[in-house]
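Possible regression after last week's pipeline update?

I re-ran a chain I had predicted before the update to compare outputs. Posting the input and the new output here so someone can diff against the archived version. Not blocking, just want to make sure nothing changed silently.
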Amino acid sequence: MSASAQAASPPSRTVLTHGRAVWLMIAVTLMWATAGVVTRHLEHARSFEITFWRSFFTFAALLVILPAWQGRAVFARIRSGGRALWISGICWCVMFTAFMVALTLTRVANVLVTMALGPLLTALAARIFIGHRLPPRTWVAIVVAGLGIGWMYGTQLGDGLLAGTLVALCVPLAGACNWTVVQHAHAKGHDVDLVPSVLVGAAMSTLLTLPLAWPFQANAHDVGLLAFLGLFQLAIPCVLSVLCARVLKAPEVALLALLEIIFGITLAWIGAGEEPLPSVLAGGALVIGALGFNECLGLRDRRAAAVALPGTR
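New output (post-update):
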């Protein structure tokens, strides 16, 4: 989620101070982190049905939230968004679908640690497809994070968890593709509003998983939990993260987004008794450490540049 939140969006009247944006982003990561523990308390819903209901309720929520926030013109922007917006919608569809399917196949910690690769995969995609030059610190971070993920994957070859972890890898890959498409469109003078593209992605995910979810098995308890995920774990925090990204710098957003991993693993451990494997904790420490190191140095470089050029922000 966080890797794509920094793309351009229409101006908003909402004004956030830096401190409030930080606290709001922390709240956003806590909302994102509820997916694992809530999924573990479902009674009958399984696999694609879980994805269908969450995507459906996200779509329904955004149909209300977006016109209230941006006016009915948001639907005109979808119609005139062009190819980039629809490709972005496909990327969101992949992220929504792969994330929930992965949670049904493997442990919460495996999914969240794999998703942490998002910013580094995004940087690599920008280098390959857009030509952005990467500083040495980012190359080091990519190598270290790769070692961490390789260690985590290698220890899962015989325990049946690797399939879910590989599905989870689709999430940061789609996120990297999403960001690259948005940045390429921006370079061509066409800004993509990511919030309407989330609506498009939710609609696509709903339609894609409907035939795979039938016949429905979820009871009222399950549907209530999945409605919670659609509204409070996805729709609302997606909108709030866009607001935060207008105030916070990209490294700050990436660093704060790491809290989702800590919150998510902790909630699943405490709320569902799902203890993370030692190999996942070790691999995750390498991934989080590499990402944190890279983003902290990036933030320091930005601040140094701002001091050197007082007219910049």
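Follow-up from reviewer: compared with the archived run. Confidence is low (pLDDT under 50) at residues 1-14. Marking as no regression found.
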